[in-house]
């Protein structure tokens, strides 16, 4: 299961608004690896087909409003009315719900939303810990120089000056500047004296900024880096 994020070599982008579509409630199965479910009406999608975008943390007031913690770089998804997908705790199927409206709570990184059919605090309390999802295909388009996190994972990293293969991107860590976590290739360690043998199978953190990561080629699944002296040997 994935979280929806976007990264930029210069700044983080919140993304453009996505208009949802209303519709009749229905359920779409989500696979449970411990208890597989056979459903002949709906195919069971792969978990990679869905992005988690937020979680209901508590009711808000007495009229059925809900507090949602966003887990996405596109939190405006909780402001635009329309269809959303919800997974209740302990359930194995995504439930289609209709978002009526939403607003951001300043300084708390929370959204207060209203769902169709949830009209009092008791109903809202029963929604606690439900998680929101969108299909991977519903990701907003990004501007030039911006990337979805999922697209960066697995990219091969090369030294721009020599073309030497450094390793593979295994994670992106939030920081003042986002950091690419790169798993060293054993041959790169062997060929570089400053990297001792105890670094085998370990990783290095590379700031995701234009000066150090000037090339990100998603089509070729390739990243080129120009690290300053010592950067590759100070993280581990």
Q: What does this protein look like?
A:
The protein is mainly beta. The protein has two domains: 2-138, RimM (Elongation Factor Tu (Ef-tu), domain 3); 153-234, SH3 type barrels (Roll). It contains four helices and 16 strands. A hairpin with a 4-residue loop joins β7 and β8 (110-115).
Gross CATH architecture of the largest domain: Beta Barrel
Structural class: mainly beta
Quaternary structure annotation: single chain
Annotation field: number of helices: 4
Detail the poorly predicted runs: 8-46
What is the element string, with H for helices and E for strands?
EEEEEEEEHEEHEEEHEEEH
- In total, the number of domains comes to 2
Largest sheet: 6 strands, antiparallel, barrel
**Can you tell me the CATH topology of the largest domain?**
Elongation Factor Tu (Ef-tu), domain 3
CATH superfamily of the largest domain: RimM
Write down the Rg. Answer: 21 Å
Brief digest:
The chain is built from 4 helices and 16 strands. By secondary structure, the protein is mainly β.
What order do the helices and strands come in, and which of them pair?
Elements: E1 2-3, E2 6-8, E3 27-29, E4 50-60, E5 65-70, E6 82-87, E7 93-105, E8 110-115, H1 121-125, E9 131-135, E10 146-148, H2 149-152, E11 156-159, E12 165-173, E13 179-184, H3 186-190, E14 203-207, E15 215-217, E16 222-225, H4 231-234
Parallel strand pairs: 1-4, 11-16
Antiparallel strand pairs: 2-10, 3-7, 4-5, 4-9, 5-8, 6-7, 6-9, 7-8, 11-12, 12-13, 13-14, 15-16
């Amino acid at each position: 299961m994935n979280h929806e994020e976007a990264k930029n070599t210069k700044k983080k982008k919140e993304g453009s608004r996505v208009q949802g579509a209303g519709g009749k409630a229905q359920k779409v199965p989500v696979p449970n690896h411990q208890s597989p479910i056979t459903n002949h009406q709906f195919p069971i999608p792969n978990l990679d087909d869905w992005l988690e975008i937020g979680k209901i943390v508590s009711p808000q007031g007495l009229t059925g409003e809900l507090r949602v913690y966003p887990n996405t770089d596109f939190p405006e998804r909780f402001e635009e009315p329309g269809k959303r997908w919800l997974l209740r705790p302990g359930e194995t199927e995504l439930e289609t719900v209709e978002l009526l409206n939403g607003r951001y709570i300043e300084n708390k990184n929370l959204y207060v939303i209203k769902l169709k059919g949830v009209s009092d605090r008791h109903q809202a309390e029963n929604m606690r810990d439900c998680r929101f999802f969108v299909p991977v295909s519903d990701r907003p388009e990004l501007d030039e120089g911006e990337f979805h996190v999922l697209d960066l994972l697995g990219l091969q990293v090369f030294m721009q000056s020599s073309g030497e293969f450094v390793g593979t991107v295994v994670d992106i860590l939030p920081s003042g500047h986002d950091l690419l976590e790169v798993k060293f290739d054993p041959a790169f360690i062997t060929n570089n004296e400053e990297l001792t043998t105890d670094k085998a199978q370990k990783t290095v953190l590379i700031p995701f900024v234009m000066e150090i990561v000037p090339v990100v080629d998603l089509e070729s699944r390739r990243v080129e880096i120009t690290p300053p002296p010592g950067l590759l040997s100070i993280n581990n």
